[in-house]
Known about the structure:
alpha+beta, 2 helices, binds zinc ion
Amino acid sequence: MKIAFKKVGPNKKQVHYEKEGLSIDGTLQRGEKSLVDLGARMSGRIEVECIRCGEPFWLDVDEALHLKLSDGVYTGFDEEADVVEFYDGSIDMEEIIDSESASIKLDYHICPACKQKEGEDDGSTKETCE
Ligand SMILES: [Zn+2]
């Protein structure tokens, strides 16, 4: 799903996009410095790998997503949010959801079974080698 930068004005525009069980719901709005604000909620499930046992499992995702979208190269720095650049005059929601899910996958995740095992050990959260 692509949305032309030209079509995003100062009034909030609803946006909804779903891919592989993840969805983004929110609004696009032209902000300062020619950037477009994306204020959204990302929710759904994503398959990640457990760092302990290496098994894939489904992680529930429900988090706020705030990005600034730039029509072309953005040379400044924004303190409020990450700036994502698009080079063909339109906002690609698929690219946003792909990069967000990729960054979630890069985080450390522990599957419920390993979490439970940890809890049964001695209640502490220290790292254990098996
Ligand atoms: Zn595990």
